[in-house]
Every structure is written in C-alpha cells, then in structure tokens.
Design a protein that fits this description.
There is one protein chain. The chain is α/β, with parallel strands linked by helices. The protein contains 8 helices and 7 strands. The chain has a 7-stranded parallel β-sheet. The two termini are 32 Å apart.
Amino acid sequence: MQRQKKTMEELDRVSGAEYKKLKKKPLLVVLDNVRSAHNVGSVFRTCDAFLIEKIYLCGITPVPPNPEIHKTALGATESVEWEYAENADLLIQDLKASGHLMYSVEQTHKSIPLSETPVFKTNKCVLVFGHEVYGVSQSIVNQSDICIEIPQSGTKHSLNISVCAGIVLYHFFSEYSV
C-alpha cells in the first residue's frame, strides 16, 4: 500500500482571517520567564494548532516581532492572540480573581500526572509553563490550583518547554474536543 503525502491544498487549512473567527478553546497559556525565542515560537505554533484562546508572555520571555520567534512560529504570531505582562505574579492574581483555574506545569510534591489531571470545562483554564532551567516560579506554583507533571523514566528530569507544551496542550485540546 502506497502512502502518499497530502498536498497543501488537501490539508484544507483555514486562512488567517478565517482562523480569527473560529471558536477557541477556553485555554490561556502563560509563559513565565521562558528565555528561548525558539521555544516561544514553537509554543505559538502549537497554540495555533490547538485553537488556544491567548498567550501571555511574561518577564524575560521574548515577544514578537522577533526573527527567532518568527522562524519557529511560521506566522502563528499573527493568528494567535497574545499579550505581554511584565509581572507574571500580578497577571496570575488577576486571572484567578476573574475565575480562571490555574494549572502550573511543574514537578512538585503534590503534582498530578498529566493522564490523571482533571480538566474542568466549566472554568477557563490557565496553563503556566516556566523557564527552561528553573521552571515555573515558586510564587506562581503557590498560587496554582493544580500542578501537572508529565511522568518520565529516563535520566533527564525534564522535557524542553516547547515539547512539554505540545504534550500538555494536546491533552487539554483533546478533552475539550470530546
């Protein structure tokens, strides 16, 4: 059996204008001091793929326009709504005050494996991803309703933030698509 790749036309992707009109998943992403523009671009592209409502770029996280973000985002900075917030702690306080449920993706003593993570569809959910070395800041972990962990068995104790975001966002996207 021959498996032929689909052409760009067969993929039937929506235009940027059509994308803006699509109903988004009630998910917000917060990047807490993510230092790599390549990781930021990858998260933009993943958020586009999974119809994420908005990305907040906080602290030292690079913002568009940026050639390194552009290189990996492939235009997703134009389709996905985003905002810069200098202080992630204040942003999280504001989002929680407006009824958002806060999930930090971080290894803690009480983190829940991703496969067991409850997705509460009655609330808007915020997924916080942290710095490549230091993770989500402790002050944000302290404000979190739930901490999520992706179980791993190898010698490394963490995944690249863009890989981690892809796994977690797909999990939430799948839950909202049911």
